[in-house]
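Me: I keep going back and forth on a fold encoding question. No explanation is needed for now; the record alone will do.

Assistant:
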Amino acid sequence: MMRPKKIWANLAVKDVKRTMEFYTTLGFKLNGGHNNGKELASFLVGDNDFVVHFFRNDLLKKAIEGELADLSKGNEIIFTLWSDSKAEVNAWAEEVRLAGGTLFSRPAEFGEGYYGFVFADPDGHKWNVFHMQNEL
C-alpha cells in the first residue's frame, strides 16, 4: 500500500526567469538551492511549505513523456491560497495585477461567507485567493 510522505506540484512554464520574478514579487518564498532561473523556479507556499516547482516547458514535457496542457483552452488545476481577511484578498488582487498576472474575476462575495477572486500567472496557471468567514 502506498503511503506518500510529501506531495508537491510540477508545472511547466515558458520563461523560468519571468516566473521567478512574478512569484517573488507576490512574496512567495524561494525553495532554497532548487532555483537556477534557467530550468527551474521552486517555491514554498503556505504554513506547511507546499512545494511548487515551475520547470521550463521542454524539460517537463520530456519528463512526462507526453504533451503539456494548452492552458489557453482550459484549466489543468486551480490552487487556492487562503487569506485572513477581505482586505487581504483585495490587496492580493492589486499585487497580482501590478506583477503582471491576469485577473479572471475581481474580489467579490460568492456564496454565504465566501470572498475571493481568480487569477492566472503569466503562463496561465490559475490560482484562487480565498477568504472564508468561518475558518476550515
